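Input record, target 12 of the design panel.
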């Protein structure tokens, strides 16, 4: 597909985000299983449910646009998830693994925030006010997830990981 307009770029980036969310849904169960801290497990479980709603919202946007959601693979998310998988195979103390999981999850959240912020702005420029509102809701959720992970890291998980064995 030739991308010769902002609208085509917008749709292309939405497809990228759709692929990213689908990949995250596949990765989160492994992260939940690997996490030892109960608050971290719950944060990942809750985010899995939120991610499912985010995919549904993207489906709605694609319906509004009359476009198919599929057709693109988010290579950046594939790389971020692959790095996370490699890290989860390392031999680490459980507390250190939890700290590493937070780091991997926050890299993913930051990628998503950048993507959703971009498409939200493009939706506004294109006059797609309802879509911009939907995308802002997802952007807010990604920011909330990032803040929660930061609180968990700073209050308990990184502190526990810093204790030498």
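The sequence produced for target 12 reads:
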């Amino acid at each position: 597909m030739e991308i010769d307009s902002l609208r085509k770029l917008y749709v292309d980036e939405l497809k990228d985000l759709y692929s990213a969310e689908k990949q995250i849904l596949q990765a989160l169960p492994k992260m939940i299983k690997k996490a030892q801290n109960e608050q971290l497990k719950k944060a990942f479980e809750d985010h899995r449910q939120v991610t499912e709603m985010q995919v549904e919202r993207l489906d709605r946007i694609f319906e509004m646009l009359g476009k198919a959601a599929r057709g693109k693979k988010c290579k950046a998310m594939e790389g971020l998830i692959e790095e996370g998988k490699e890290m989860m195979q390392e031999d680490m103390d459980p507390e250190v693994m939890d700290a590493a999981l937070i780091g991997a999850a926050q890299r993913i959240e930051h990628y998503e925030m950048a993507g959703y912020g971009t498409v939200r702005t493009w939706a506004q420029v294109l006059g797609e006010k309802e879509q911009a509102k939907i995308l802002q809701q997802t952007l807010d959720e990604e920011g909330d997830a990032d803040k929660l992970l930061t609180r968990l890291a700073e209050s308990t998980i990184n502190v526990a990981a810093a204790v030498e064995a």
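Residues 54 and 137 are 9 Å apart (CA to CA).
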